[in-house]
Every structure is written in structure tokens, then in C-alpha cells.
Amino acid sequence: MIELDRALEIVRSVPAGARVETILLDDALGRVLAREVSSPIDSPPFDKSAMDGFAVCAGDESMELTIVDTIAAGGVPARAVRKGECARIMTGAMLPSGAGRVIRREYVREEHGRIRILTPEQGDNVIRRGANLKAGESVLRPGVIGPQDVGVLAASGIDRITVAVPPRAAILCTGPEIRPAGAPLGPGQIYDSNGPQLRAQLAAMRCPSRTQTGVEDRPGPLAAAIEEALAVCDVLLLTGGVSAGNFDYVPGCLRDMGAEILFHGVAVKPGKPTLFARRGEQYIFGLPGNPVSTFVIFEVFVKPFLYRRLGIDWMPASYRGTLAHAVRRTAVERTEFLPVRVRQGLVEAVAYHGSAHLNALTEADGLVRIEAGIRELQEGTQVDVRPL
């Protein structure tokens, strides 16, 4: 058994190995941008008004001005503005030639084709050409593409981008007692939660997957299922069969088929039996069978691994909160990820009965990492919450 941080170092040391493809911007959400994108244009591409108001010459101190034009957003000024003149202009509209500032409309009185300035304007209320971004400057660097990134790319006129191709994943859920949702349950059987949960976690990363459930806990059928999965995937996620029970054959099967086990057993709770292996260019995670363990180990190990393969070093966002109540532990030899809820900056543990208690995650907003050796976190302690 190795320490959590050492296991994470091993996972994050795998080489980046993504292929790339060009896709439409409409398909970009959640994908990983493979190359830095530069802007082909200035943003904005012209001087524009930041207010509804009247465009006037920069040095014109006249208190009364004649309206010579009206410019809507998207319109083109009909003529230049000279001293003593102004153009009615809308927010976002192009500034006319000769104009250097905009007086907001609530600062003037308009009548008979003229305006009188009632309140002096402090700023120029103009967004200058290239103020946000100049042609050739970086629009976006490699990373996971969010909705705001789609907007920024679109604002630069970019409709296609180069992204990393996600690894093909396969999921094998061991145990003949596993049944799919909707099927009748026989004696001793349970519904499969790990398969759908892992598929959803992979889908959130835009990673395609295939699933096989109910794989028998015997060396022959298990080895055959693993070989079949490795024939069509880059990353294999196994659930169950990695502990030390009489029917935990995954480590032996992997060794027999030539896989190198990089670690097996991590000082983490939940997820102590976690296994990580490699065969050639393929990687295998052996995840514990309990569903909370499966979920947490995916978030802590599999997600950063997949993003590494996609070419980026990903770390989860976290936020600070204050423990509303003390947290005490009896076993302190492992680093623990504790499900918590957050209300107005106060963090409290949810009712949690162990790694089989999947419902606890639906009540949680995030996980708090409690380091090995710590027996108690007192009320009022500042903690980092890893969002779910």
C-alpha cells in the first residue's frame, strides 16, 4: 500500500498521448482544446459606444450641439461629426469619424434636433478598437472548453477548433449478482450502479465508453472479458475483484496477460484496494466494488489521468469553508475524502454510513480531504472543499 500523493504522482506521470481533430465550435463544449488559438481580428473591431447617448468630438466643450445622425448597433455612420455637432448613438454602435467620446442620454435634454448638456460627463464611454484583444493575441489556451470559452471564440469569428480526441474507455463490472436497472432481481442480486455512474462520469468529460456488467468472478471468464475489452479500448475501468477476497482475481489475471501493475493498494478512504496497471499503451484501473469508492476514485485518480492523456494537467477547483461541527475519526492511517454539504460558507458532514452508502453523495456538495494521522478537525477549522 502506498501513500495517496505518491499514487497520484504515478498517475500524473503518464505521457500525454492524445490524437487531435478539428470540430465545429457548436460541438466544442466539454472538449479539451489541443492548441492555443490566436485572434484573427481586433476585438472589438472598431471604436464603439459603451452607452446609449450622443457621440461628440473629443475636445468639444460646447454645451449645446446639433444632432446630425442616428447610429444603431450594427449600423454605419452616415457622416463625420464636427465641433458643435453630435450623433445619437446606441450601445455597441460604431463611433462616427471625428467623435472621441459619448455623453449618456440621461445627462442631456433633447429638443428640436439639438441637445443641451445638463451634467458633465466624466469618462469618454468609448470601447476602443482592440481594447479586449488585438489580432494575433491569444484567445484561448489549451484546457477544458466551457460555455464562456465558446463565446470568446465565437466573438473572434472562429468557427472550428482543434481538440484532443478522448481515449476510448471500457467498463467491466465484475460479479454475477449485478443486474441492469429495470430487470427483476433474484435472490442475492443487486442493481448495477457502478456501470451507469462511471458512464456518466466519462460522458461528462466527453469520453466515449462501452460497458459489460455481471462478469463472472472466475479467472477464465474474467480474463476473457478483460482481453475482449482491451481489444477495443485505450483505458479499462474494472469494478470489483481487486481486494483480497477469495473471488478477487483481477490482479492475477492482469499479471498473467502481461500487464505491469504500477500500484495496488492506496492509503485512501474510500478506495484502499485501488489498482493501476499498464499493458503497452493501454492503462487499467481496478476500482473497488462499493459505489462511493468507485465514484471517489474516479474523481481523484481517473479524471486527472484522462485529462493528462488529453494533454493538460488538470487540478480540481476548490473553495474554502468553515467547519460547522467537529469531525472525529477513530481510524487515522489513511487519507479520507469525506462527503460534506456547504451552506453560506459553513461546511458540515452529511450522514454517511460508508463506501456502500451511495445516497450520501446526492446530499453532498463536495468532498473534504482529511490527511492521514489527523484524528479530529475542530469546529471552526478552515477546510478546502472539492466540489462534486
Structure description:
The protein has 388 residues and is α/β, with parallel strands linked by helices. It folds into 4 domains: 156 residues, 3-Layer(aba) Sandwich (Molybdenum Cofactor Biosythetic Enzyme, Chain A); 47 residues, Alpha-Beta Complex (Molybdopterin biosynthesis moea protein, domain 2), CATH 3.90.105; 80 residues, Molybdopterin biosynthesis moea protein, domain 3 (Molybdopterin biosynthesis moeA protein, domain 3, Beta Complex); 69 residues, MoeA, C-terminal, domain IV (Beta-clip, Beta Barrel), CATH 2.40.340. It has 7 helices and 28 strands. The strands form 8 sheets. It has a 6-stranded mixed sheet, with no helix packed on it. A hairpin with a 2-residue loop joins β20 and β21. The longest helix is centred in the last third of the chain and has 19 residues. The relative contact order is 0.13.
Q: What share of the residues does DSSP label as strand, in percent?
A: 25-35%
| Order of the strands making up the biggest sheet | 7-4-6-5-9-8
Biggest β-sheet description: 6 strands, mixed
What count of structural domains?
A: 4
